[in-house]
Amino acid sequence: MKAVVIGASSGLGRCIGVGFAQRGAEVALLARRHDMLVEAAREAGSGALAIRCDVTDEASCRGAIDEAAAGLGGIDALVYATGIGPLARIEDLDADTWRRAFDTNVVGASVATAAALPHLQASRGAAAYLSSVSAGLTPPWPGLAAYLVSKAALDRMVEAWRTEHPEVGFTRVTVGDCVGGDGESMTQFANDWDSDLAIEVGPIWMQRNLMNGGFIEVDELVTLVHDVVSHGASVAIPHVAITPRAPFPAPSPSPATESLEVQS
């Protein structure tokens, strides 16, 4: 499988790109931060391509997809893992922040898809887009309006692509809480958040059961996305979701155990 992963310099995108390579795929890793991409490509192994791509710049995005297709000799799968989630009260979101969220989370996804479309049509391939439980599976999360609204728009965009191009497999992948991997593979979603506001809204998310304290193992996410796109257009997979179970409470010690603990 010849796969292009966008947003592969860090976080979940990096985990997916490296994970695909470890599962035997030929990969092109795309993102803005080329130095981090080079490191990710080295981790992925021989033959992985590192290509700079700014999804908010149409010429950069289209050029990167063309370079990836040329380097791989075609495209069987496209994974759009890029996403930003500014944390702010909705009344404090200015127009530039809204535009940046939509340009990154929605417009860039469509531009990249349009660029990859001829290659996906030729291979009868598939495309997957990382979405969020906040886009529709849960009530809105206070403080994440720009993120959840743009991800809801992404969901509809994927459906629009599927409607107009049924010859390609288009899947939205709804993802719950996942911290990613180690080092640069750890999600950087919250790196730029205002810490005071995060401390304020975090307990609200927990009280409203928007978070349950559990986290998805990133390898499970990688396996799911790999399985989705490896089917190409031969199997219709419009939507999959992966969410964490709430942590199981620790069992209470038995009286015998308690007695032994006291004796020791």
Task: For the structure shown, list the relevant keywords.
264 residues, alpha/beta, 46% helix, globular, disordered C terminus
Q: Strands across the major sheet, in which order?
A: 3-2-1-4-5-6-7
- Radius of gyration over all CA atoms, rounded: 20 Å
Give the CA-CA distance, first to last residue.
Answer: 58 Å
**Strand percentage, roughly?**
5-15%
Overall geometry: globular
Characterize the main sheet: 7 strands, parallel
Helix content: 40-55%
Specify the number of helices: 8
> Would you tell me the overall average pLDDT?
91
Unreliable spans are: 254-264
Helix vs. strand class: alpha/beta
Q: Sketch the topology as an H/E string, one letter per element.
A: EHEHEHEHEHEHHEH
Number of strands: 7
